């Protein structure tokens, strides 16, 4: 069949088009016809279908995400907010930091290695497109049960993909999470975060302005990988004699991406671009329509000039291809030569594919014939918006009534000891070093803290010691019990982790992983979680800078636990003041900060010992979190603590085990009067941390906590080579080390 | 006096900026060198940093050895100029046959990144004079193709001539089977680094450039000696 040009579309209004196969609803297709005043061409249909997909348009989530803007706290730190490739935060000394967390869940289940690898690649290009040098990555990962046979297929592939791509790019991987739960069996969550650093004046935005400016596509050639719906179109509407059904999962080439990074940074340095956008989901469709939509004029693209890996690709396929390692820049005509020269230096292919035009149309041509003529805003920014019905599921009450505080508790101190060993060696609480040791955490020579520390921290200025810290957290079990509280607990934990390292939290990015939006119960979870997060950010004064929504994480009717993952970014004036988690010095006094109550709903203990999920998650008190954060930051700055560790899954005992093993020293612990040892050691009350205070600082530290009204209880001392809880039990560090460190390699190596 | 130390950037090199910093921290001048440029800019020594030059496609280091800059490096190395290859740089040096043997994929098939204990077996090379013979040091290791192999005759010769520069040593590294707690990748005879007959060319799998500042990386400065050794060598010469 011949080329479906605009002219042809005008002449053949009644041609049947495969809009349903491309995932469009009938009313969406009608709307496209109304916008254009004719039927769309095949190329236009392809563009609208991918840009109006849930992934690109946020059509189900948009009405809820608006709260992040509406309820945004006043912040001097935010330089670029939601809507760009990534948000940008002022961290002082003329530096700006950009960071974002994104999902690559579905591809990673199908093809774990490439799915995870291209997840890293995509987020790195987002950061690069803002004008920043990427300086670190983190990966929050969630898998099915640790002992399930399929986990042994998915996890090593994902970990090798994250490592294989990230290690080759020269980006230190400084943290993240690895969580196991049967609810993720058919829907692993592979989230990827990248942090980038630039000077304020280097911020770049994705927009095409200035009539006559050139559109340059550079990076890898365009191939047939990553084409989802469009191969349907190609096979049904066009020539069906050629090979079809190319892989829908993209294939990454980190070497090409590394060249792209260095080449792009050199181009930025010489100030050669007026606008820039990376090519990710929806490929050229997305890049051209978003650039044109955000700019002042229109755009004309000669699609046949795009360098191809496969000469048989149709124009629709070229528009949809998600081939990796590509960028699109808007360049003033007199800077084009220098731009191309730098690309040549780095062996990066660069091609002028079009230019910015007057008017307001995005026009695409194929060997001189027009195949696209659309208002770009209707493609990129004015897609459908749905008010999906949502309703609190009827099972929610029964779930919350199934109180975890009433589960049978250990009757003797021997039983308590036994259950504690079970908790700290269970896959979720066990050491993840077998996984994180497959990532390069040292490259770039600025890593101050990395896993298993509370946050990942990198230095950004060698002279002053200015640094940034990032932590990501999420707890699907808490969110299942109460999505509003669960989202706030994720925020609180990441905030606390950053503060415990000594950095001041400034802003957040989120990755919202949920089931199908067409299920009213899932939609209720989503609405509650976003409301909780927006309210929480307002209270803590940390604006949402951007992020990503991943829906349809479910198999059949069974959705994953609602899993909002929150990344908090903080700044520290001098990384020499950072606080590690390890108890390294005998004689230092251990203080427990915050209040401990009986809170076992969703806890590691209830999961590990009773395989139970019910009741209510720990109570949230964000004012308390803020106060705790301020104390931890002051204590770090003024040298009052030598170690600090936030308390979360597994409660106090988990934190003590991690800090003792990290520092290589034991601890003698005394249960405070009036507190049940079981509750003291295993409850998961939020807003708490344990700190190691040198004796010389004890008075000053106590005075500070007293004056600010933060409960601080002296619970013991760093000492010996065991964790000894007076009157209860003693566990030698060697035994704890074996329990904590052997689990993951035992299951996966 | 100071020395000019060239640091080569191939496409895909990752640790070039870190190595330049390490050279500066050691009090020397770092001179960036570009793979397409034969000109070594009158440097006194050259470091080939780690990374995945040319994507490690074909084989780690296999393509880099043919780059224009390597022609000059090979020539100068043979004339006695100190040359240090770290990780991917070591792989390039074996590909050029400036050093014997080869690197294969780690025996456990995974990338591994960890603090690694080493023993300095030869403190007389151009790059190890700042250490004591037998000194134990702790510097990061990170690679996937780090298993040093050579035939028995070569290994015997290396040992007989004192050309094993550093060896892997045990440490309480959790999460690994006992045999991997000391030797992280199955390298023959625990070899982590070697030198040529003249002692001016050294190849190392671990990364001393990531252990030159307190707080950063391992938090120690055990790696600094590799860079300060160069100054010692030039003063002695």
From TrEMBL, chain A:
It comes from the Bacteria. It is an enzyme of class 6 (ligase). CDD domains: PurL_repeat1 (cd02203), PurL_repeat2 (cd02204). Its main location: cytoplasm. GO terms for cellular component: cytoplasm. The active site is at residues 55, 104. Mg(2+) 1 binds at residues 102, 548. Substrate binds at residues 103-106, 125, 250, 322-324, 550. Mg(2+) 2 binds at residues 126, 278. It is found in: Cytoplasm. ATP binds at residues 58, 100, 510, 547. Pathway: Purine metabolism; IMP biosynthesis via de novo pathway; 5-amino-1-(5-phospho-D-ribosyl)imidazole from N(2)-formyl-N(1)-(5-phospho-D-ribosyl)glycinamide: step 1/2. Residues 83-198, 453-572 form the PurM-like N-terminal domain. Part of the phosphoribosylformylglycinamidine synthase complex involved in the purines biosynthetic pathway. Catalyzes the ATP-dependent conversion of formylglycinamide ribonucleotide (FGAR) and glutamine to yield formylglycinamidine ribonucleotide (FGAM) and glutamate. The FGAM synthase complex is composed of three subunits. PurQ produces an ammonia molecule by converting glutamine to glutamate. PurL transfers the ammonia molecule to FGAR to form FGAM in an ATP-dependent manner. This is Phosphoribosylformylglycinamidine synthase subunit PurL. It comes from Streptomyces bingchenggensis (strain BCW-1). The lineage of its organism: Bacteria, Bacillati, Actinomycetota, Actinomycetes, Kitasatosporales. The gene is purL.
UniProtKB/TrEMBL annotation, chain B:
InterPro entries: Class_I_gatase-like (IPR029062), PRibForGlyAmidine_synth_PurQ (IPR010075). GO terms for biological process: 'de novo' IMP biosynthetic process. It is found in: Cytoplasm. Its main location: cytoplasm. The keyword Ligase applies. It comes from the Bacteria. Keywords: ATP-binding, Cytoplasm, Glutamine amidotransferase, Hydrolase, Ligase, Nucleotide-binding, Purine biosynthesis. Pathway: Purine metabolism; IMP biosynthesis via de novo pathway; 5-amino-1-(5-phospho-D-ribosyl)imidazole from N(2)-formyl-N(1)-(5-phospho-D-ribosyl)glycinamide: step 1/2. One of its GO terms (molecular function) is glutaminase activity. SMART domains: GATase_5. The keyword Transport does not apply. Part of the phosphoribosylformylglycinamidine synthase complex involved in the purines biosynthetic pathway. Catalyzes the ATP-dependent conversion of formylglycinamide ribonucleotide (FGAR) and glutamine to yield formylglycinamidine ribonucleotide (FGAM) and glutamate. The FGAM synthase complex is composed of three subunits. PurQ produces an ammonia molecule by converting glutamine to glutamate. PurL transfers the ammonia molecule to FGAR to form FGAM in an ATP-dependent manner. Part of the FGAM synthase complex composed of 1 PurL, 1 PurQ and 2 PurS subunits. NCBIfam families: FGAM_synth_I, PRK03619.1. This is Phosphoribosylformylglycinamidine synthase subunit PurQ. It comes from Streptomyces bingchenggensis (strain BCW-1).
